[in-house]
Fold this sequence. Notes:
2 helices, RNA-bind/splicing_reg, RBD_domain_sf, mRNA splicing
Amino acid sequence: MSQEIAITNLNFRTSIDDIYQAFSKFGELTSCRLQLNDRNESKGYAFISYRRNREATEAINEMNGFHMDGREIRVAWSVSSQSKD
């Protein structure tokens, strides 16, 4: 089962590649989505999913409060995430 986490307070210039590079070190990403507005510009948040719960948990623990592109990002379980057992 995929484990989804939300990343908020992203710099509007942070790219999907930047997110993938920063978060793939914790495990296999099954999805990485940067939310865009109608003008195809970042809304400042993204959702990523890992194959394993422990990978997602490690990413949350290590990256919440991390400074990325000049902003302190917030990383937490996505509200829509399935069971985290």
